[in-house]
């Protein structure tokens, strides 16, 4: 079977080694999703029940779908849209499969638009922490400071703009140039700092309560909304369902093991999320904060911890700097599929492609900024009150609908449309049983699980009556 499409003669670069791929994909996965979103989702989802479902989803849905994305990307070595188009052609499937790529690009813009706003909050907190704003302040005051900050659209816009410029520059220069080095250094340091923070939290007096909250499963809290949220969070945190991992896979050298790399990426992402929970919740409980307070959670808890810790100005600043880096290495993967598509099919240079995509996501971000101030509106989603307008809509639509939908289609395509000989050849699994397990889970388990939840989302209101 011919893998090369005659209409396209642009061929992308490759990572210099498999390790760089693992690092870049881990950089994409580990981000605000782990340290900002995971704790507040756990808080709103009632603790252990959410964590348990999350872990089940990571294993049964996350691992097979990540393998599928890498497999597809490496086989076609093109942007998600063209990867789906070329592979569908080669395998005799409908050209309509390229819809998955389009859905992914749209999803990437929506996510990046609010992701960059939150990353902008993080940038601002680097400077506020460094300036000693939080030193020895009481929890009430720290909470109030955040409230004043997010409701000031001009300030937030400036930080959002800065972050988007940073992201666009990296994407324009090419992911390989410069970024690899930064990730290599930053990811281990982030990990160590997180451990240090967990250590601090252990002494805060709230550790036992936090541990129970995270790991004691109260099955009465296991509502469909919590399950849906946990599944969406697994997609979000692992960067799955929109082609980010697919495009990174398309730069992966040919002989590298897909299964081994996937296990490493998934493990690192999961460990960082759990560590973030163990760092944040002790502070929540020791200071009488509200675990379900939502997106503001870490901007209230972490400054409290750093405000009281010896050397807190230094450690706090460093922590937010690293969080910015974690967000940065994730943000680039959100527009890389669109940039690769523009360079492939429109013949635009990386520079122009990056500016166009970054600019578009920047514009969309204004909706999120305004959702925390003048344009705030509230609505109900499956019976849960949401108060931050467009931010909540973009988050819910991507995390709960388009990422799982993209994921299910990727699994179905990789499992059913790609001939077995081809997927086996690409995955290069040493054991036959390993391949059979991947095929079974990808064909049946992940699509059925995700499909059931999506159906609930569509028709759930009729069960709740
Ligand atoms: N996974 C990243 C995080 O946890 C966010 C992210 C990057 C992402 N690329 C993605 C989410 C693609 C969904 C799809 O912060």
Q: How would you describe what is shown here?
A:
The chain is an all-alpha fold. It has one domain: Up-down Bundle (Amino acid/polyamine transporter I), CATH 1.20.1740.10. It has helices at residues 18-29, 32-44, 48-76, 80-90, 99-130, 139-150, 153-173, 179-202, 207-215, 224-237, 244-250, 258-286, 297-308, 312-345, 350-371, 389-417, 420-427, 432-463, and strands spanning 379-381, 384-386. It has a two-stranded antiparallel sheet. The longest helix is centred in the last third of the chain and has 34 residues, at 312-345. It is globular, with a radius of gyration of 21 Å. The model is unreliable at 1-10 (pLDDT under 50). Tryptophan is lined by residues 28-29, 31-34, 111, 236-237, 239, 242, 244, 330, 333-334, 403. Residues 28-29, 31-34, 111, 236-237, 239, 242, 244, 330, 333-334, 403 line the site of tryptophan (TRP).
């Amino acid at each position: 079977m011919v893998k090369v499409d005659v209409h396209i003669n642009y061929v992308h670069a490759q990572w210099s080694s498999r390790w760089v791929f693992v690092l870049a994909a881990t950089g994409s996965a580990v981000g605000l999703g782990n340290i900002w979103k995971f704790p507040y989702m756990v808080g709103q989802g009632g603790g252990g029940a959410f964590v348990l479902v999350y872990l089940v989803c990571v294993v049964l849905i996350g691992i097979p779908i990540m393998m599928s994305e890498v497999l597809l990307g490496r086989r076609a070595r093109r942007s998600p849209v063209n990867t789906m188009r070329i592979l569908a052609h080669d395998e005799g499937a409908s050209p309509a499969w390229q819809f998955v790529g389009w859905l992914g690009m749209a999803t990437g813009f929506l996510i990046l638009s609010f992701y960059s706003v939150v990353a902008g909050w993080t940038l601002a907190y680097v400077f506020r922490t460094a300036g000693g704003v939080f030193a020895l302040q009481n929890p009430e005051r720290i909470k109030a400071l955040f409230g004043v900050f997010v409701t000031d659209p001009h300030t937030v816009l400036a930080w959002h703009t800065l972050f988007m410029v940073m992201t666009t520059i990296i994407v324009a220069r090419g992911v390989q140039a410069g970024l690899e080095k930064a990730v290599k250094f930053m990811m281990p340091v982030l990990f160590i700092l997180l451990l240090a923070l967990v250590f601090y939290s252990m002494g805060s007096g709230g550790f036992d309560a936090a541990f129970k909250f995270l790991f004691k499963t109260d099955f009465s809290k296991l509502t469909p909304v919590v399950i849906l949220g946990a599944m969406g969070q697994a997609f979000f945190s692992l960067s799955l369902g929109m082609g980010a991992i697919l495009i990174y896979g398309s730069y992966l050298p040919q002989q590298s093991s897909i299964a081994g790399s996937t296990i490493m990426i998934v493990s690192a992402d999961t460990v960082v999320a759990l560590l973030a929970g163990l760092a944040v919740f002790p502070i929540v409980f020791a200071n009488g904060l509200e675990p379900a307070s939502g997106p503001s959670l870490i901007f209230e808890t972490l400054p409290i911890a750093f405000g009281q810790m010896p050397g807190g100005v230094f450690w706090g600043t460093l922590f937010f700097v690293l969080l910015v880096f974690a967000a940065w290495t994730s943000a680039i993967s959100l527009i890389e599929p669109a940039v690769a598509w523009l360079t492939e099919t429109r013949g635009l240079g990386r520079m122009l492609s990056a500016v166009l995509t970054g600019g578009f996501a920047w514009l969309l971000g204004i909706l999120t900024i305004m959702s925390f101030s003048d344009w705030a509106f509230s609505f109900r989603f499956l019976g849960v009150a949401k108060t931050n307008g467009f931010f909540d809509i973009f988050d819910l639509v991507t995390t709960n609908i388009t990422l799982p939908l993209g994921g299910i289609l990727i699994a179905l395509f990789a499992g059913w449309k790609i001939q077995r000989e081809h997927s086996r050849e690409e995955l290069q699994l040493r054991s036959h049983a390993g391949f059979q397990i991947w095929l079974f889970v990808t064909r049946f388990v992940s699509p059925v699980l995700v499909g059931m939840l999506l159906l609930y989302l569509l028709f759930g209101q009729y069960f709740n009556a």
